Structures are given as C-alpha cells and as structure tokens.
Amino acid sequence: MEINKLVLATRNVNKIEEMKELLSDLEIEVLSALDFPELEEVDEDQPTLEGNALKKARYVHKVTQLPSLSDDTGLEVEALNGAPGVYSARYSGEHATYSSNVAKLLNELSGMENRRAQFRSVMALVTATSEFTFEGKVEGVIVENERGDGGFGYDPVFKPIGFKETFAELSSQQKNEISHRGLAIQKVLDFLLANSQV
C-alpha cells in the first residue's frame, strides 16, 4: 500500500495545522479539504465518533480518489454521563463557537466536585482498498476557569492528568506528545510506516 498523498478530511485550520505538524515525519504530500473546493460539508449525524470519522473519510476519498484521513473528537465528561461527546463541536447549539461551548460546559459543571473527563479522538483512514480506524485518548479534569491562550476548543479548561497546566497552557509540541489526537496520529504514523513505502 503505497501512499504518496494524503487528504485530511477537514477545513478546520487549527486541526489542519496540528495534524500536518504531527504527520511531518512522513515523506508524503499532505493536503486538506481546503485544497478541493468541490468538496461539500459532511453532515456529522452518526451516533459515534467512529461513525462520523469514517463517513467523512469515505466521502473525501470518493470525491478526490486519494487516501483520506479524518478524525472525530469528543470531550467526554464523567459527571455529564459522557457529554458533550459526539456533540462536542456543537454543544451550545447550531451556531456554537469555542467560547460558547466552554461557557456551557463550565455552567453545567458549576458546583460539581467530580470534574473527571477524557478527550477521545478516532482517526479513520480510507484508501482504495481498505478502511482503518485508530483511537487515542487522554484523561484529565475540567478546571473551573479558562487558562492559557494556546490550542483551541476546550483546551483552556482541560488539564491532563500529571500536569499542572491546561492544554492551552502547553506548547503545541508538548500538547501533541500527550494529546488524544497526537496519540491517534502516532498510531496512524506507525501503521503507515509499517505498511507502506512512505
């Protein structure tokens, strides 16, 4: 399975930057949905992260005819029975922003002692002949106030176990080494290095 080009099935500039950095060890051309104006938005209507990741990667592969890599990521909060989970990106409604999602989360957890949570990322790789999924997760707690100005999404309120800093207070290199997406991408990297002539 020789892969020379890979399309990231996302238009999220933050994700593209993070994933390109993580994939920089591979000598392949990394493209994104931004490079293919004909791609339409995929409705993430599946009940699981795996389902959404596969749906996006299948669609992008079908249109571009290139190997496609997609991820779906959810923040799963123990006291909220796993919410926001698959709805993490649109937790605060149809016109959700990073800020409004974080504000809703902090409001929901107000006064709660149990603030345990985990970030979970599922990567789906779809090629002409196969489909694969890879999972990465990191456990932590939701802090009471936003801290740091790095990262994106829920990073300012997620403090990984073993760290005093939130994801938003860590450098991108530190975050990528321990993050859910970083761990999932590492599995993708190991797989590609073991199974292709990249």
Question: What structural keywords apply?
Answer:
198 residues, alpha/beta, Maf protein
Detail the topology: elements first, then pairings.
Elements: E1 5-8, H1 13-22, E2 29-32, H2 49-64, E3 68-77, E4 84-85, H3 98-108, E5 116-126, E6 131-142, E7 158-160, H4 172-178, H5 180-195
Parallel strand pairs: 1-2, 1-3
Antiparallel strand pairs: 3-4, 3-5, 5-6, 6-7
| CATH C-level label | Alpha Beta
CATH architecture: Alpha-Beta Complex
Q: With helices defined by DSSP (H or I, 4 residues minimum), what is the helix count? A: 5
- Radius of gyration (Å): 17 Å
| CATH topology assignment | Maf protein
Ranges where pLDDT stays below 50 over 5 or more residues in a row are: none
**Structural domain count:** 1
Estimate what percentage of residues fall within beta strands: 15-25%
Instruction: Tally the beta strands.
Output: 7
Main pleated sheet: 7 strands, mixed
Class of secondary structure makeup: alpha/beta
Terminal-residue CA separation: 9 Å
Whole-number average pLDDT?
91
Shape: globular
Order of helices and strands: EHEHEEHEEEHH
The level of helicity is 25-40%
